């Protein structure tokens, strides 16, 4: 059995969080150097607190959007933010990759499909290895 973990790209809020933490450090330094310590320290505490809160929210969002895929000789199990799906290889008739190579469709006959969409919106090496392994199960 093999397990794949598809991770989303880091949110843009991390850049803003980093900027706020740097701003907090600068405000703390300026407050230390000048006689306006209290005002700058309060500003540094607010900016630093907001920056750390944004980092925390971003990390939680990254963890919740992960997609986990287990493959074995019998079938697959996919679970993530939208729920869980399972299936067997004997029911899968073909596999198709989207033009952007960020989605993988497992066809179960003509009507039913299981779509594996990479949470980052672009393919990475893990996603391409996943596709290769799934194709290997169908060739057997």
Overview of the structural elements:
The protein is an alpha+beta fold. The protein folds into two domains: 8-64; 69-139, Roll (PH-domain like). The protein is built from three helices and seven strands, in the order βααββββββα. A hairpin with a 3-residue loop joins β6 and β7. The mean pLDDT is 87.
Short structural description:
This protein is α+β, with helices and mostly antiparallel strands and 140 residues long.
Task: Considering the chains and any ligands shown, give keywords for the structure.
140 residues, alpha+beta, PH-domain like, 2 domains, four-stranded antiparallel sheet, three-stranded antiparallel sheet, 7 strands, 27% strand
Number of helices, counting only DSSP H or I runs of 4 residues or more: 3
N-to-C SSE series?
EHHEEEEEEH
CATH architecture of the largest domain: Roll
Please tell me the total number of domains.
2
Please give the order of strands in the largest beta sheet: 1-2-3-4
Mean pLDDT: 87
C-alpha termini separation: 16 Å
Number of strands: 7
Per CATH, what is the topology of the largest domain?
A: PH-domain like
Largest sheet: 4 strands, antiparallel
- Global shape: rod-shaped
Q: CATH homologous superfamily of the largest domain, by name?
A: Pleckstrin-homology domain (PH domain)/Phosphotyrosine-binding domain (PTB)
């Amino acid at each position: 059995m093999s397990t794949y973990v598809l991770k989303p790209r880091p949110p843009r809020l991390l850049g803003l969080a980093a900027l706020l933490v740097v701003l907090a450090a600068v405000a703390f330094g300026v407050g230390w150097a000048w006689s306006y310590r209290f005002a700058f320290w309060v500003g540094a505490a607010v900016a630093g607190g907001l920056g750390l809160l944004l980092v925390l929210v971003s990390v939680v969002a990254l963890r919740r959007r992960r997609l986990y895929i287990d493959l074995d000789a019998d079938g697959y199990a996919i679970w993530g933010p939208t729920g869980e799906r399972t299936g067997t290889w004997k029911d899968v008739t073909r596999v198709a990759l989207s033009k952007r190579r960020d989605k993988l469709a497992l066809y179960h006959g003509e009507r039913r499909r299981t779509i594996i969409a990479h949470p980052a919106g672009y393919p990475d090496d893990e996603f391409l290895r996943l596709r290769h392994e799934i194709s290997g199960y169908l060739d057997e």
